[in-house]
Design a protein that fits this description.
Blueprint: E1 2-6, E2 9-12, E3 17-24, E4 31-38, E5 45-51, E6 57-59, E7 67-72, E8 77-82, E9 91-99, H1 105-109, E10 121-122, E11 126-131
Length: 132
């Protein structure tokens, strides 16, 4: 399994970026794909998760309405569109893959998708810096 993120960079507050995660070595079937971020001195936190084949998505409250996760199965790529960026969005952003069971109703109730331990494979990360 390999996950390669790209698209990070420096952007002004209020700006937008689109991150990409190119996946290989596994099928999107039976998978969930998520974006996490980790700011200096803070724990890794889940931003958004999408089912590998249906339209199920879920977002952290901190980014709901500003970020959008999507995927292109033909390109084996997951995206994170980030709008209205704030300085507090500055972090290294990672994509990760786990089981599609993370998006069942029971798992969503327990918010399992937000826990890094729920995922088997990770990318190397891409840095996003938002200037004020």
């Amino acid at each position: 399994v390999q996950l390669v993120e790209s698209g990070g960079g420096l952007v002004q507050s209020g700006g937008s970026l689109r991150l990409s995660c190119l996946a290989s070595g596994f099928s999107f079937h039976y998978s969930a794909l998520s974006w996490f971020r980790q700011a200096p001195g803070k724990e890794r936190e889940g931003m958004a998760c999408i089912h590998g084949t249906d339209d199920n998505t879920v977002y952290a409250d901190s980014v709901k309405g500003r970020f959008a996760i999507s995927r292109d199965n033909a390109k084996n790529t997951v995206y994170l569109q980030m709008n209205s960026l704030k300085p507090e969005d500055t972090a290294i952003y990672y994509c990760a893959t786990g089981s599609s069971s993370l998006l069942t109703s029971d798992a969503l109730h327990l918010r399992l998708w937000e826990f890094p331990s729920s995922y088997n494979d990770w990318g190397q990360g891409t840095l996003v810096t938002v200037s004020s």
